[in-house]
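Note to self: keep these together.
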Amino acid sequence: MKVALVSDLHANHQAAKVVFDRITEMDVDRTICLGDVVGYGSSPNEVCQLVRSHCDLTIVGNHDAAVAGLMDYSYYYQAARDALDWTVSVMDDEHIAWLRTLPYTAKAGSACFSHGSPVYPESFEYVFNQALARAHCAFHDRLQDVTFMGHTHLTRSWRFDQTTAEDVPPGPIEFESGWKYLVTVGSVGQPRDYDPRACFVIYDTERNEAEYIRVPYDIDSAAAGIRAAGLSEHFARRLYRGV
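Structure:
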């Protein structure tokens, strides 16, 4: 089975459209979204509709939870709060109701799907370095063989056992027996790994491997939408640099 994994679309309709078009061309068996459908970008309704049309399963992200009234985001920095307030003001009720139904994690076979760390998924904890990956050693026995995550917008992965965690080199990931894995799948709508192209992952369960796929999209149009909505200029500029 081939599974497409998308995450952190962040209301970027231009990026989401080209990614789902590419996934359709690849004839995958299942598509899973790891959360943050909304936030930062200017097209929350359009992206919600794309995700609902294309994804077999969607996990709730922290921005989704904030918009759906499932968490307090008063501690977010001002521009992010303003973007979430604006998103709530323009979103269709049916999409907000859908966001409220999304699970924090899901499991299928030997894999787990989560927005942040799978240990306490409601806390949306980041995993972006080896030390944070190593903290999962203590939970080795309760975690799946591989956990796919979003949240950081990065393309980093680690393998771990009961005592240690190691970085997995960039490129296709071959899952080896004797290790468990944490895989961050990158971001469709706002990459932060210095590659501005939209990113998603193909997980091949038969070959037991995962591969990152990058797709260029119309950044000028996405940035223009952010500016037209009156959202932070920072959200527009960062799209060009992938940070």
